[in-house]
Amino acid sequence: MSGDPRTVLHDVFGFPDFRGRQAEIVEHVTAGGSGLVLMPTGGGKSLCYQVPALCRPGLGVVVSPLIALMEDQVVALRQQGVAAAALHSGLDEEERRRVSLDLSNGRLKLLYVSPERLALEGTAERLARRDLSLFAVDEAHCISAWGHNFRPEYRALTMLAERFPEVPRVALTATADARTVDDIRERLSLTDAPVFRGSFDRPNIRIEVAPRDNPTAQIAAFMEEADDGRGAGIIYCPSRAETERTAARLKREGYDALHYHAGMEPADRRAAERRFSSGDPVVMAATIAFGMGIDRPDVRWVAHLALPGGPESWYQEIGRAGRDGAPARALLLYGAEDIAVARRRIGESPAAETQKRLDHERLDRLVAIVESATCRRRLLLRCFGDDLSEDCGNCDACLRPPRLVDATEAARKLLSAVHRTGGRFGLGHVVDVLRGNRTEKVGSFGHDSLSVFGIGRDVAEGAWRNIARHLLAHGALAMASETNLPIYQATEAARPILKGNQPVLLQESALREAARASRRQRGERRAAPAFSAAAGSETFEALRAWRKEEATRQAVPAYVIFPDRTLEEIAARRPGSIDALASVHGVGASKLERYGQDVLRVLREAS
Predict the structure, then answer these.
(1) Strand partners for 171
(2) Could you identify which of 84, 398, 402, 471 might form a hypothetical disulfide with 77, taking C-beta atoms 3.0 to 4.6 angstroms apart as the criterion?
(3) Domain 406-506 belongs to what architecture?
């Protein structure tokens, strides 16, 4: 196989060129370099190790946390003509023997393994006898206790640098804050290696947040707007029982709906995964157990019926929509009770106090975003160190700006109270001082004698919390991380507010007695943007029908044969020869040889 990355990209994957920082990363890894890659879901992380593995001599080893994710990647690579296999506990004896034989005989170019399997001494010994091109650690945030999906078995990967010091290591993740990034680099001995940070922005996903009022009606209206009748959708539910209730209700309403949660039998979960990957316009009602191993590119929408665990979880989950780059939608419904339940769950958790503090921080950051009156995407991306220069224009706060009121004076009072109390207390104590509550704690610290004591009696406690979350979201307040309890401190960004040089505007509902946001006007419905000029045409539908038959015959997900984007380009361009078909995005040499004549036949019959 050619050692030139662009040749491999075109001939194997059928892509005309790299995107974003892919070219830079591929060049670095192909030359033998290690590093950490931060890219959003759907940003093309897999090519950053697949292309170098095909360019470099030897076997590329990919560590992946889920069997479903490994299997889907292997199926997709085999469709591209790449000798790939997976080694995990889900293989039967015959499959395991076949993979082992291919590994021993040097017939594999890419091997996917679970972290548990790689940690086995026998596996490491066998790999040590092979010429290795690279190690790729996918979902690398799982190695960090600071990450939102910590997997203890990932800790064993610290041995890679010790046992295979000459083999390049590339870690990849779509969700990692600064603390998690530092931990990944330390654990995988990448502190001296570069960090390739692509933009986390997914501008094709419209982000919407609304108070949960009548979730059945709200989801129905959202689905009607967001769904184009061809793609799939995911509804994330707060409990296993809710997934089953939601799927049953959708079925009664005529939808092709499934449910998925960790309490199902393994065979039933795999059946649900295969059904979702079939290419049909199905709706999956699921807990967060679903999604990490799903690469379906045409998921058109994702909805949440309750608050996710934090910004990282939310971003990862909504990122499962619109992986093909076409317009997609994300809706989050939340209620004040979600926040209370989440805080109680954290407090009752057997986790260490340090972990509880981190969980509280994540929750507060998320609540600050959903209660904000300004561009949600800017606040969400800021959690990953990605600052937009202007508002996104594709979130509900941008598209339907809420009514704002001037809360500058109240914000100045809160910031002053934080400062006067020394920046050493949680929000509850600061609010007690503002509202003039003579608690034992307020008295013991002498804070009832401060000039700020009682200056906020006219503002409800819930409103003070909303103001604090707003200031937190915009960086004027920060939570210290040196103690087990969240401590609020003013930052440099608070200075222009305190001086009266920067106004603070909040939603009108944030200053009312009720802690939760008031209902928002729906406004006029917006039609889902058209997918492309070819979408829905007879030729396109004929190609989809052929693809479904072919996928069923091979027992593989439909999208690994060709994604919708490729079929739409074929339908629009109507190539009349193999050479013309080869120039279509996503048609590599292997797929051209496998499916070229069939595609041309379908085009002739549809004309």
Answers:
(1) 36, 137
(2) 84
(3) Orthogonal Bundle (1.10)
